[in-house]
Design a protein that fits this description.
Length: 370
């Protein structure tokens, strides 16, 4: 048992453990976990030790404990289940655990796949819960990456889509649209761009899509068009996505998390548009979009590799424009961010350092010529 597990076990009364498990069985695992994370653990608790110097460390340990607690209870519940309905209820828990792993723990795709696969064994054939599990398996395989895993992702997303179309009354149901998005993303990762365009376009006809889904579809469609060399269509899609997200930000005061997420999506779109205009050698427009992306990313992320990405892109554009002084400033900042976040030996840091050296070398040559 982890230190967090030992600590929680020592203070969690049997009735509390039963209530926690009951919430998970009812499909409210995320809410139960949030309640657990909100537990007020004193930072000077002697049982916790130095490993809990930061609250985020505590939360991650509690997430880990929660997953182990539920996995153990689920194993016991499956052994004790007397009918298919009880097993299907436990299958719902396994599905929740797989999602929690994907959302909170990098590199845990295989274990998530194991949870989803076991859940499928105890889920009836003709229910939407089965379609959701197939979709989650597709997401897990896509996250693993690599050609074979991406093919597995497509297989599972196709099976999920077929089941949804069979079960839902409306072929334009939002869940169908999200299957199209998932399939488009998987084909894009396999560099099957025409196929990805097909699925992203299908996603856009789903009339019940949320604005976030529509913006995602336009953004992804723009990226796919760029890969095929259709830059005009790419710009059109990026602008449509940008308009939707900006309207969402100003239309109503969203909760802080949603507002932050929307702002980051806008930053990513400006980054994509900067990349596209740089590819078209329209450097002034590229600079404009990179600058907007940088402003948002710096305000939201402070020190983060994504900030360094935009700084590096600005350094490249300024170099192409012949403004080596501005290029050097942005390149130096990119190195500082990467050094602080990824470390001096990371490949991205070293690549940024090489860019700095190249800019300095060009600046020196320019001075000599003058």
């Amino acid at each position: 048992s982890s230190p967090a597990g030992a600590h929680v076990d020592s203070v969690l009364a049997p009735s509390q453990a039963a209530a926690l498990w009951g919430s998970v069985l009812e499909g409210r695992g995320s809410q139960a976990l949030e309640a657990l994370l909100a537990w007020n653990v004193a930072p000077d608790d002697p049982e916790l030790g130095d490993v809990y110097a930061h609250q985020e460390d505590i939360k991650q340990q509690l997430r880990s404990w929660f997953i182990e607690f539920c996995a153990s209870r689920a194993q016991t519940a499956l052994l004790e289940a007397t009918d298919a309905q009880q097993k299907a209820q436990v299958a719902g828990v396994l599905g929740q655990l797989g999602c929690l792993l994907l959302d909170n723990f990098a590199g845990q795709e295989d274990r998530a796949i194991s949870f989803f696969s076991r859940a499928l064994e105890h889920t009836p054939e003709a229910v939407l819960a089965r379609a959701d599990l197939l979709s989650n398996l597709g997401v897990a395989y896509k996250t693993k990456g690599g050609k074979d895993n991406l093919q597995q992702a497509i297989t599972h997303h196709e099976a999920s889509l077929d089941l949804k179309i069979t079960l839902v009354a409306d072929p334009l149901d939002i869940s169908v649209g999200r299957s199209y998005l998932n399939l488009g993303t998987a084909h894009y990762a396999l560099q099957q761009f025409e196929k990805s365009i097909e699925y992203f376009t299908k996603a856009l006809v789903i009339r019940r899509n949320t604005n976030a889904d529509i913006a995602t579809a336009y953004n992804n469609l723009g990226a796919a068009y760029k890969k095929t060399g259709d830059f005009d269509s790419s710009i059109e899609c990026y602008n449509k996505a940008l308009d939707i997200l900006q309207q969402e930000q100003t239309a109503s005061p969203a909760d802080p998390a949603a507002s932050r997420s929307g702002a980051l999506a806008i930053a990513n779109l400006h980054q994509n548009m900067g990349n596209l205009y740089r590819h078209k050698a329209e450097l002034d427009k590229a600079t404009q979009h990179y600058t907007l992306a940088l402003q948002l990313r710096e305000s939201l992320l402070a020190t983060h590799p994504a900030v360094a990405q935009t700084l590096s892109c600005l350094a490249v554009v300024h170099t192409l424009q012949g403004d080596l002084s501005a290029a050097q400033v942005h390149a130096d900042k990119a190195v500082a961010v990467l050094d602080a976040t990824l470390g001096p030996t990371h490949a991205d840091t070293q690549q940024a350092q090489d860019m700095c050296s190249h800019i300095k070398q060009r600046a020196g040559q320019q001075q000599q010529q003058q």
